[in-house]
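Morning!

As promised:
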Amino acid sequence: MSRQKTITGGLFVGVTAFSAFLIIAVIIILLVVIINGGKDTFSWEFLTSFPEDGMMKGGIFPAIFGTVLLVLIMSVAAVPFGTITAIYLTEYAHEKSVLAQTIRFAVRTLATVPSIIFGLFGLGFFIKFVGTGIDDVFLGGQLKWGQPNILWASLTMALLTLPVVIVSVEEAIRTVPRELREASLALGATKWETIKRIVIPGSRSGIMTGTILAVSRGAGEVAPILFTGAAYYLATLPTSLSDQFMNLGYHIYIMATQSANVDQTLPIQFATTMVLLLLTFTLNLAAVIIRSRLRRNAK
Amino acid sequence: MKETKIKTRDLSLYYGAKMALNSITMDIPEKEVTAFIGPSGCGKSTFLRTLNRMNDLIPGVRITGEVLVDSLNIYDKQIDVVNLRKKVGMVFQKSNPFAKSIFENVAYGPRINGINNKTKLEEIVESSLKKAFIWEEVKDRMNDSAMALSGGQQQRMCIARTLAVEPEIILMDEPASALDPISTAKIEELIHELKKSYTIVIVTHNMQQAARVSDLTAFFYLGELIEYGKTRKIFTTPDKKHTEEYITGRFG
Ligand SMILES: Nc1ncnc2c1ncn2[C@@H]1O[C@H](COP(=O)(O)OP(=O)(O)OP(=O)(O)O)[C@@H](O)[C@H]1O
Ligand SMILES: [Mg+2]
């Protein structure tokens, strides 16, 4: 009996240790393959120059630029909107009110919707409905906003990352101690003054975490921008919100599937993947650090 | 006997279905110290918090009866709660400085009231800190975080922060219960000084403290006001057996 227990126990430890090892092994293999494949191409030159020869040579600067611009515009839209929603949910809505329940349900649902659906929604709503609407009403039908561009892509991406922002900010707001709100109110501050002067400053790191997580997610996703603004190849950088843009993730996809000679572009693909991984990894690390600091402060 | 500052009439409070205060009627005089004593859970904090409507923040609280401050019913619909709280300040059990500098902590109230002039703010901050007997200890570190102060200093700074709003009444919920004897003595000395200009209501678990600082004492038990009168009388010849038992430490 007890011997059997020892055996099953030992087996269990073995299995868990093996799965843990497997996961680490996968990550290491992945990194080794990518770094090995990309290290010769990766250089300052690669980061700062344009693609050449139908993307068979040259760098990926426009894709980096486009990705950064995308997540910037996305943040400008998602962070204030998400923060305001989180403030409403935690500070104003009654926990059990129909509206608050509905918003929470919507946020949870939004977080599980496959990203390609966001792409389709962006195409249908932002481009076909809003964009074409603007063209018809203000530009006499001239085509300007009713086509894919960086604005619509960023807004689509903002919808995708909104739940991340809302959840992070909500969590941070909840760590602001009740005592501080009471102190503020007892000094004759209104609820809004208390939120503005105590709650929001106290949630700054949560807002930061939310932003970084959203940016890291937005930098890696391709599906939402597929129909809404990402371009295959552009000879110039986007200069207006109605321009299309290049993107790291999309660039990898294009090189892997559409290039004239896929094998020849492999080193570029690996190097681009390295850049993308480095970017999202750094961002996630920053978010983890800020969040753990936040948790420690809450104690 | 001084003028009455606060009156409650048949004040009852319910947390959901649970009654926490049962029909309390009492008069609290101006510029004196009134102490609330009683065993844990008897409703002292709850009662104190009805006086500046802090219980409004707790969902499910229902209040019946009246609280009159300067003869105005503060639960009247026309009353502006924000103005009420400026008039009736509060100091909490656990010192609760904001994560700001000492200066900004004390300037918080005046700033909310729209005072932005730097000189004026400095004046208010200095005089408030002086009134709270902490100016000498912090005058050279006004821009340091208030979190860096000791517990006792934080509590006196919180009192200064309350004074900066120029209240008429100060409610204190066990202001010294988390402090060492020296800090406690400083707070008690401060209360003694403050009662010249302010009406003070203080909750305490410390019988000696109640006896030392207060002019009047109210004994609560299970949400009811059992006995209320001059502190000297309550502590020497209470009318109710319950009060005597509690004060002499035989229960509670
Ligand atoms: N937010 C709340 N919700 C429900 N019940 C509460 C709440 N706050 C207090 N109570 C209850 O009301 C009663 C009075 O509580 P209160 O905090 O006023 O007591 P107290 O006399 O201040 O006690 P202590 O000396 O421990 O501070 C207690 O039975 C308590 O459990
Ligand atoms: Mg209490």
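The beta strands of chain A are 51-52, 57-58.

Hope this helps with the figure draft.
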